[in-house]
Amino acid sequence: MDDQKTGFYIASGRIIDPFSRRDEIADLYVFEGRVVNPAELPPDVRWTRIEARGLVVAPGLIDMHVHLREPGETRKETIRTGTMAAAAGGITTVVAMPNTLPPADNPDTITWIGKKAEKEALVRVYPTGCITEGRRGEKLSPFQSLVQAGAIALSDDGNCVQNSRIMYLAMEYASVLDVPILDHCEDTTLSDGGVMNEGYWSTLLGLPGWPSIAEELMVSRDILLCEKTQARIHLQHLTTEGSVRLLREAKKRGLPISAEVCPHHLALTDSSLRNYDTRFKVNPPLRGQRDREALIEAVVDGTIEVIASDHAPHTQFEKEVEFDKAPFGVVGLETLLSVCLQELYFSKKMDLLDLFSRLTLGPSRVLGLPQPSLSYGSVADLILLDLEEEWKVDSSQFLSKGKNTPFEGLTFKGKVVLTMVDGQIAWQREERNLVVK
Ligand code: DOR
């Protein structure tokens, strides 16, 4: 048996490391799951060369908003298929939302997800637990048991806790445990029945509107409760100019608040719904151009420190119904990076270091995870990216079971060609022949 130790020598790539602010061409050595210093290479190791000339080498992305649908809805996605899609998208860590069947409001379900992920996942999976039992917004879940079982944060995502007293108690409880609350901000007394942004297009299309104010009211409430409790609160998938303004003010006052935006809200507006295409139906909805611009500005200036996909797979048959009956949600794992590159990097609004910061450092800080980096000693979760490669979105090629992308048929520049998790190749485009044996 060949028991010689092996490592990877990633040759001549452009290192992009937001943590150390490093942007330079260099070699990278990976051994026993970590990036190692070339001046201190261990002896007797057989180095497998990975040809990275002309490619970007960056830390793997952390996507802190993903619906893996297990347990309970494996027709839509599984931990296996969802993490295959993540790896293909350059994502090495996913945070799984708790709106599963049953919901992850109890330690057994969290433990079950953890064990299943250990066996089947291609990338790291961190489960979240529900804020309230059954995500009904009435009674708090047992936070401490959820955290002990492995929940990294608490969220009722898909629902928003309407009762402010329950949310107040949730934040007090979470601040004692020092665990973040991720909130889907939606006042349902205002959004009830709404299927798209309330505005010009909803009027023209005759569809019930979900107004911006329904998000902004909950953002305001959460900011006030955050100020009162000092809990770590993270606002999920923000969509409006008003939310950005409220967040910016709250941050100026030094509150422990953070926020995320999704690629579809950065790239698209409600005018995309003009053909009643359910692939554009998402909650919160696509907004107007001014909202889109405000979100982009907030990501650029760091007011929003996280970009997350809100990958929400649904089956074709569920989406192929009348607009108001279709479920909300778009898939995003396999397009996350390319859409961000288009909207933020190729549009010359951000450099690669800052863009990768929103996709790696930002989420790690919100969640209290180890800082992703390519510096010596760091865990080797990394990607190789071809910035020049053009590709056309064809959902039939997705590894995700979900084909409900709003980007079908569009051409993007920039594609991940290899993903490494814990120093091992989790996924690669074989036809690129990057690994030289
Ligand atoms: O569009 C959405 N889909 N928004 C959510 O908040 C939930 C998600 C889902 O679970 O399908």
From TrEMBL:
InterPro entries: DHOase, DHOase/Allantoinase_Hydrolase, DHOase_cat, Dihydroorotase_CS, Metal-dep_hydrolase_composite, Metal_Hydrolase. It comes from the Bacteria. Zn(2+) 1 binds at H65, H67, D157, D310. SUPFAM superfamilies: Composite domain of metallo-dependent hydrolases (SSF51338), Metallo-dependent hydrolases (SSF51556). Belongs to the metallo-dependent hydrolases superfamily. DHOase family. Class I DHOase subfamily. Its EC number is 3.5.2.3. It comes from Candidatus Methylacidiphilum infernorum. This is Dihydroorotase. Its cofactor is Zn(2+). The lineage of its organism: Bacteria, Pseudomonadati, Verrucomicrobiota, Methylacidiphilae, Methylacidiphilales. The active site is at D310.
